[in-house]
Write a structure and sequence with these properties.
Helix content: over 70%
Number of helices: 9
Order of helices and strands: EEHHHHHHHHH
Radius of gyration: 19 Å
Number of strands: 2
Largest sheet: 2 strands, antiparallel
Strand order of the largest sheet: 1-2
Distance between the termini: 26 Å
Structural class: mainly alpha
Length: about 250
């Protein structure tokens, strides 16, 4: 059986009072924050005189924006629909945010186009404008994700049992292609804390055949520094000498 790396195979849990509840947002939002922060820094330090470098920087930005679009659709189609089904207008605030995000993404892509094809001083000016607009987009998304993780989660926990939330998650996960799963994994592995990382990979260790899990460990080792890798290897009971996975770098 062929098993691909699925960074969404386990949802995170959040403590509310003394009860652990299924959190549909936490882990993937950490991945998105990591991707956004890295891309913002990369665009900010862009060398507009380096044509190949500009193309590479804009390619990462385009990958980020594409993933953001996919993430919006996943939330609209599964999470917002679940809220609205039992509490009409319950997801209105974040649904309105999503409409603004669509517009902002389109504008950022237009700004990136201007940077790519501008020359001389015009390219430098366009790059500064792109960086400023991307910073606003990231700031807006950080606030938006906080609302989802607090207000929307509270609504979901009031309306759905954990079993029902896991069913929503499984249907969402099944709708995602392997390429998107791997892209999220690239950013999630380095964004999770050691306990979260060990819990997710520990569950995968129980479910995945040996060969795909070895590839997953190689990806994890390539993403983590020595200290974090040592903690993960110890938690999973695997050798620290696991080979790195060069071909698994997707971004």
């Amino acid at each position: 059986m062929h098993t691909t790396l699925d960074p969404l195979a386990r949802t995170s849990t959040t403590t509310t009072n003394t009860q652990q509840r299924v959190d549909l947002y936490g882990s993937v939002h950490k991945a998105l924050r990591s991707f956004m922060a890295d891309t913002l820094v990369r665009v900010g330090r862009m060398d507009v005189a380096d044509g190949d470098g500009v193309i590479a920087d804009l390619a990462q930005l385009d990958a980020l924006l594409h993933l953001c679009l996919r993430h919006i659709h996943h939330e609209n189609d599964f999470v917002h629909c679940a809220i609205e089904a039992r509490r009409p207008t319950g997801a209105r605030r974040t649904a309105d945010d999503h409409r603004e995000h669509f517009e902002h993404i389109a504008a950022l892509r237009a700004d990136a186009f201007e940077v790519r094809y501008a020359t001389g001083p015009d390219r430098a000016a366009q790059a500064r404008h792109l960086y400023a607009q991307l910073a606003l987009f990231v700031a807006n998304n950080l606030q938006h994700m906080h609302v989802e993780e607090t207000v929307n989660n509270a609504t979901l926990w009031a309306l759905y049992s954990d079993a029902e939330l896991l069913d929503i998650h499984e249907r969402l996960r099944a709708s995602i292609g392997s390429e998107e799963h791997m892209q999220v994994a690239h950013w999630m592995l380095q964004a999770l804390n050691p306990a979260e990382r060990a819990a997710i990979l520990g569950e995968m260790k129980q479910k995945m055949p040996a060969e795909p899990f070895a590839a997953l460990l190689g990806l994890a080792r390539s993403q983590l520094d020595g200290n974090d890798w040592a903690k993960l290897a110890a938690a999973l009971g695997v050798p620290q000498a696991t080979p790195m996975c060069g071909p698994c770098i997707f971004i």
